[in-house]
Amino acid sequence: MNVLLLGSGGREHALAWKLSQSSILRSLHIAPGNGGMESLGVNVDLDIMDFAAVERYAKRNDIGLIIVGSEAPLVAGIVDFFHASERTNVMVVGPNKKGAQLEGSKEFAKDFMWRHNIPTARYRSFDHTEVAEAVKALQEFRPPFVIKADGLAGGKGVVITESVSEAENVIRDMLSGTAFKDAGRKIVIEEFLEGKEVSMFAVTDGESFHLLPSAKDYKRIGEGDTGLNTGGMGAISPVPFVTDEFQEKALNQIIIPTIKGLKKDGISYCGIIFFGLIRVGSDPYVIEYNCRLGDPETEVIIPRVKSDLLHLFESLCSGLLSEYDLVTDERAASTVILASAGYPGAYETKKEISGIDDLEGIDGMVFHAGTKTSRNKTYTNGGRVLALTGRGTDVEDALKNSYRMAEKIQFDGAYYRKDIGADILDLA
Ligand code: AMP
Ligand code: GLY
Questions:
Q1: Which of 58, 224, 267, 424 supports an S-S bond with 262, CB 3.0-4.6 Å?
Q2: Which residue has its alpha carbon closest to ligand 2 atom 4?
Q3: Does residue 238 line the site of ligand 2, with CB under 6 A?
Q4: Model confidence pLDDT, tens digit, residues 27-51
Q5: Which of 147, 149, 50, 150 is nearest to 101 (CA)?
Q6: Which domains does the chain have, with CATH numbers?
Q7: Is the pTM of this model over 0.85?
């Protein structure tokens, strides 16, 4: 089968790496891809939001399956576009526009959870005509206040503040469109939950599902979870506090009710549901849903999948998911992100990277996030540059391998957090 993978980050490199090992893959095309993926498939210069261009490419190259890495094409309706297409009958992994609203609208997601009795923080939502009501509603919550832009805001749409006056300003800035344009002209205010976070992933066709390994990511730029939010600075899998008991609770209280809820609401969903959970006491609550895999979580969960990933996606799209046997690896994985100086603020690119080919004897692999190759040299081309995935018998062991790689790979201004996993392993 010819496969087209949409995206260009570490998540897509990990997917491409795994797909390239599939026994049913004929050719792999990646749009737009990055420097690390050139040896795994053909990098294609396509605007992935231009669905007609994606369709033309798919038709010309006899693509049988499209895998969508990030949320934007899904929320914009790429699945609906291909379902309606008379020119191709290519299968697309991912939910339709309505299902993708689980990520595309916080209000939709919260109303969905409320309707289906899925544990989540108490909330209220407001639109741009209700500024005074939203400000007044702060009285119903205790600080810290959690204020979320309803729409997609590139991971930056959540503000948490102790200060009432800052909360009021955030509400005004969001609802007026100043902060996040249309994405903020509706907001959700919710109760702050205290606990440890974990990401769980279900591959579902709306009836049956398989659970991928769980992971914990580290979102802040600074050690000890301080400083600005980023796309993610590292991840580990498995997550020690996801015991059998916790997983059972997550399944029975959240994952199964979500899949049943979608069906009850008449929303067909064929793709991945990412459950951003928080453990409060010993119980799971949903912080957010996403409609795709996580980045950098994918860089630790995909290496732990033993079975054929393309076969999984093909089974998903052809109604055979329940017959698929998902085999995972007991061994742990960790990933440490090597970022450009200045990230998540302004940063420079085009710094030459050295040491990637000098990792012999280290159990792990390097996934490229923001790189470009030119004349056999690799250069930085983004804020998050490389994901250094270590393997080991346990997370501690895996982390040693990630950090061995981090010491060997260099570029001007390279930054990484030295405390990935430390909170969980009590190494801090
Ligand atoms: P989200 O984009 O909804 O995942 O939120 C980004 C981050 O904000 C989450 O990963 C949490 O760390 C934090 N967060 C969001 N909602 C809450 C909440 N209700 N209570 C505590 N922390 C939250
Ligand atoms: N790592 C969080 C995300 O992919 O949204």
A1: 267
A2: 294
A3: no
A4: 999 999 999 999 999 999 999 999 9
A5: 150
A6: 2-94 (3.40.50.20), 122-190 (3.30.1490.20), 196-323 (3.30.470.20), 332-427 (3.90.600.10)
A7: yes
